[in-house]
Amino acid sequence: MxxxxxxxxxxxxxxxxxxxxxxxxxxxxxxxxxxxxxxxxTSHSLVAITTTSVTISERTMRTVFPHLNSDGQGGAEGRxxxxxxxxxxxxxxxxxxxxxxxxxxxxxxxDMLTPLLRVLGTLEDVSLVFEGAxxxxxxxxxxxxxxxxxxxxxxxxxxxxxxxxxPRCTLPTQV
Length: 175
Hints:
It comes from Phytophthora cactorum. This is NTF2-like domain. By secondary structure, this protein is of the alpha+beta class. The protein is built from five helices and six strands; from the N terminus they run E-E-H-E-E-H-H-E-E-H-H. The protein has a single domain (6-148), classed as Nuclear Transport Factor 2, Chain: A (Roll), CATH 3.10.450.
Protein backbone atom coordinates (compact mmCIF):
# COMPACT_ATOMS: atom_id res chain seq x y z
CA MET A 1 0.00 0.00 0.00
CA UNK A 2 1.34 3.44 -0.87
CA UNK A 3 2.30 5.57 2.12
CA UNK A 4 0.09 8.34 0.71
CA UNK A 5 -2.87 6.08 -0.12
CA UNK A 6 -6.06 8.12 -0.57
CA UNK A 7 -9.33 7.34 1.18
CA UNK A 8 -11.89 10.01 0.43
CA UNK A 9 -10.14 13.21 1.40
CA UNK A 10 -7.68 11.63 3.85
CA UNK A 11 -4.16 10.55 2.95
CA UNK A 12 -2.03 7.84 4.42
CA UNK A 13 -2.34 4.51 6.15
CA UNK A 14 -2.57 6.14 9.60
CA UNK A 15 -5.51 8.29 8.52
CA UNK A 16 -7.38 5.26 7.19
CA UNK A 17 -6.68 3.27 10.35
CA UNK A 18 -7.79 6.19 12.54
CA UNK A 19 -11.08 6.42 10.68
CA UNK A 20 -11.70 2.66 11.08
CA UNK A 21 -10.80 2.88 14.79
CA UNK A 22 -13.35 5.65 15.24
CA UNK A 23 -15.98 3.66 13.36
CA UNK A 24 -15.44 0.66 15.63
CA UNK A 25 -15.59 2.91 18.71
CA UNK A 26 -18.80 4.64 17.60
CA UNK A 27 -20.74 1.49 16.65
CA UNK A 28 -21.05 -1.76 18.61
CA UNK A 29 -20.64 -5.28 17.23
CA UNK A 30 -18.97 -4.17 13.98
CA UNK A 31 -18.54 -7.08 11.57
CA UNK A 32 -17.43 -6.89 7.94
CA UNK A 33 -17.91 -9.99 5.82
CA UNK A 34 -16.29 -10.39 2.42
CA UNK A 35 -18.90 -11.72 -0.02
CA UNK A 36 -16.82 -11.73 -3.22
CA UNK A 37 -13.96 -10.07 -5.08
CA UNK A 38 -14.28 -8.65 -8.57
CA UNK A 39 -11.38 -7.55 -10.76
CA UNK A 40 -12.11 -4.68 -13.10
CA UNK A 41 -11.54 -5.57 -16.74
CA THR A 42 -10.93 -1.95 -17.78
CA SER A 43 -8.87 -0.55 -14.92
CA HIS A 44 -6.37 -1.63 -12.30
CA SER A 45 -9.00 -2.05 -9.60
CA LEU A 46 -10.24 -4.75 -7.29
CA VAL A 47 -13.71 -4.43 -5.77
CA ALA A 48 -14.62 -6.27 -2.58
CA ILE A 49 -18.36 -6.80 -2.16
CA THR A 50 -19.10 -6.69 1.57
CA THR A 51 -21.80 -7.09 4.17
CA THR A 52 -21.25 -4.90 7.22
CA SER A 53 -23.28 -5.18 10.39
CA VAL A 54 -23.34 -2.72 13.29
CA THR A 55 -25.45 -2.23 16.39
CA ILE A 56 -26.73 1.21 17.39
CA SER A 57 -25.79 1.61 21.06
CA GLU A 58 -26.23 4.45 23.53
CA ARG A 59 -22.66 5.50 22.66
CA THR A 60 -23.63 5.53 18.96
CA MET A 61 -26.60 7.74 19.77
CA ARG A 62 -24.40 10.20 21.73
CA THR A 63 -21.55 10.37 19.21
CA VAL A 64 -23.03 9.68 15.77
CA PHE A 65 -26.62 10.88 16.20
CA PRO A 66 -26.29 13.58 18.90
CA HIS A 67 -29.19 15.60 17.48
CA LEU A 68 -31.53 12.68 18.28
CA ASN A 69 -30.25 12.57 21.84
CA SER A 70 -30.51 16.26 22.76
CA ASP A 71 -33.34 15.66 25.24
CA GLY A 72 -31.50 12.79 26.91
CA GLN A 73 -34.25 10.45 25.77
CA GLY A 74 -33.23 10.03 22.14
CA GLY A 75 -36.52 11.21 20.67
CA ALA A 76 -38.93 8.88 18.86
CA GLU A 77 -36.49 8.05 16.06
CA GLY A 78 -33.62 7.52 18.48
CA ARG A 79 -35.62 5.14 20.65
CA UNK A 80 -36.54 3.10 17.57
CA UNK A 81 -32.87 2.85 16.53
CA UNK A 82 -31.40 1.97 19.93
CA UNK A 83 -30.01 -1.58 20.14
CA UNK A 84 -30.97 -2.30 16.52
CA UNK A 85 -28.64 -4.42 14.40
CA UNK A 86 -28.16 -2.94 10.93
CA UNK A 87 -26.93 -5.15 8.09
CA UNK A 88 -25.61 -3.16 5.14
CA UNK A 89 -24.49 -4.21 1.67
CA UNK A 90 -21.46 -2.36 0.42
CA UNK A 91 -18.18 -2.39 -1.42
CA UNK A 92 -14.55 -1.43 -1.07
CA UNK A 93 -12.64 -0.47 -4.20
CA UNK A 94 -8.86 -0.79 -4.25
CA UNK A 95 -7.07 1.07 -7.06
CA UNK A 96 -3.66 -0.30 -8.02
CA UNK A 97 -0.78 1.67 -9.51
CA UNK A 98 1.26 -0.72 -11.65
CA UNK A 99 4.18 1.74 -11.80
CA UNK A 100 4.69 1.61 -8.02
CA UNK A 101 3.10 -1.81 -7.39
CA UNK A 102 0.98 -0.29 -4.63
CA UNK A 103 -2.64 0.35 -3.73
CA UNK A 104 -3.02 4.12 -4.18
CA UNK A 105 -6.72 4.58 -3.43
CA UNK A 106 -9.34 2.89 -1.28
CA UNK A 107 -13.00 3.88 -1.60
CA UNK A 108 -15.61 2.25 0.61
CA UNK A 109 -19.35 2.60 0.98
CA UNK A 110 -22.19 0.70 2.61
CA ASP A 111 -25.92 1.22 2.18
CA MET A 112 -27.09 2.50 5.57
CA LEU A 113 -30.23 4.08 4.15
CA THR A 114 -32.08 0.82 3.37
CA PRO A 115 -31.90 -0.75 6.86
CA LEU A 116 -32.82 2.60 8.44
CA LEU A 117 -35.85 2.80 6.17
CA ARG A 118 -36.88 -0.71 7.22
CA VAL A 119 -36.81 0.27 10.90
CA LEU A 120 -38.22 3.79 10.64
CA GLY A 121 -40.72 3.23 7.84
CA THR A 122 -40.61 6.62 6.09
CA LEU A 123 -38.03 8.58 4.13
CA GLU A 124 -38.99 11.63 6.18
CA ASP A 125 -37.90 9.89 9.40
CA VAL A 126 -34.72 8.63 7.71
CA SER A 127 -33.97 12.18 6.59
CA LEU A 128 -34.40 13.42 10.18
CA VAL A 129 -31.92 10.79 11.37
CA PHE A 130 -29.25 11.80 8.84
CA GLU A 131 -29.84 15.56 9.30
CA GLY A 132 -27.12 16.44 11.80
CA ALA A 133 -25.68 12.91 11.96
CA UNK A 134 -21.95 12.26 11.87
CA UNK A 135 -22.45 9.49 9.32
CA UNK A 136 -23.74 9.69 5.75
CA UNK A 137 -26.35 7.43 4.10
CA UNK A 138 -23.45 5.56 2.46
CA UNK A 139 -22.00 4.95 5.94
CA UNK A 140 -19.05 7.35 5.83
CA UNK A 141 -18.04 9.15 9.00
CA UNK A 142 -18.02 12.92 8.91
CA UNK A 143 -16.96 15.44 11.51
CA UNK A 144 -19.98 17.67 11.10
CA UNK A 145 -23.65 17.11 10.59
CA UNK A 146 -25.06 17.99 7.19
CA UNK A 147 -26.66 21.20 8.40
CA UNK A 148 -23.31 22.73 9.35
CA UNK A 149 -22.32 23.30 5.73
CA UNK A 150 -18.67 22.57 6.50
CA UNK A 151 -17.34 21.22 3.23
CA UNK A 152 -13.89 21.19 1.71
CA UNK A 153 -13.07 22.42 -1.80
CA UNK A 154 -14.05 19.02 -3.26
CA UNK A 155 -17.54 19.11 -1.75
CA UNK A 156 -16.65 16.52 0.90
CA UNK A 157 -17.57 16.99 4.51
CA UNK A 158 -14.59 17.73 6.69
CA UNK A 159 -13.23 14.91 8.83
CA UNK A 160 -10.04 16.54 10.02
CA UNK A 161 -11.60 18.17 13.09
CA UNK A 162 -11.76 14.72 14.68
CA UNK A 163 -8.10 14.09 13.89
CA UNK A 164 -6.43 17.42 13.04
CA UNK A 165 -2.97 15.84 13.05
CA UNK A 166 -3.78 13.50 10.16
CA PRO A 167 -2.53 14.60 6.75
CA ARG A 168 -5.10 15.86 4.28
CA CYS A 169 -4.82 15.11 0.60
CA THR A 170 -4.21 17.86 -1.87
CA LEU A 171 -6.53 16.87 -4.67
CA PRO A 172 -6.45 18.63 -8.02
CA THR A 173 -9.33 21.02 -8.55
CA GLN A 174 -11.58 20.28 -11.48
CA VAL A 175 -11.80 22.81 -14.28
